[in-house]
Design brief:
Blueprint (H helix, E strand, L loop, with lengths): L3 H13 L4 H13 L2 E2 H11 L5 H14 L3 E8 L6 E7 L4 H38 L1
Antiparallel strand pairs: 1-3, 2-3
Helix pairs in contact: 2-3, 2-4, 3-4
Length: 134
Amino acid sequence: MIRITSKAAYLDIMKKGILSQNQRRVYQILYFGGQQTGAQVARKYKELYPTSKYSETVRNRITELRDNCYVEEGEKAACPISGRTVITWKISSCTNKARIKNLSLRLDSIDYKMRKLKEKRERLLKELEGIENA
């Protein structure tokens, strides 16, 4: 049974267009289909949205959704498609506060990388200036 808070979160996500089209499709497959393996999601995705790169599309979208706290790892289970023991995926219990914190941490990381790139650029420009003056 889907909880009322999950329904509200789902409707909010769909209404605001927070997710890209492919992210939204993968999210909907998990939302309506419940906890599934990546292969199960990929099979359903191919059924609903035929594309030549469905497996890669699904795998990458699951990673993005996980990184943004929209989905999370579920239990390990035998995949009915591959027969291997794999991790399942499910809709995340993260709150918006957790998503904001996650995003904030990622932005801090990007800021740090940008500062390092600017420092490297300045060093290279100084080196180039030194070479031109020699």
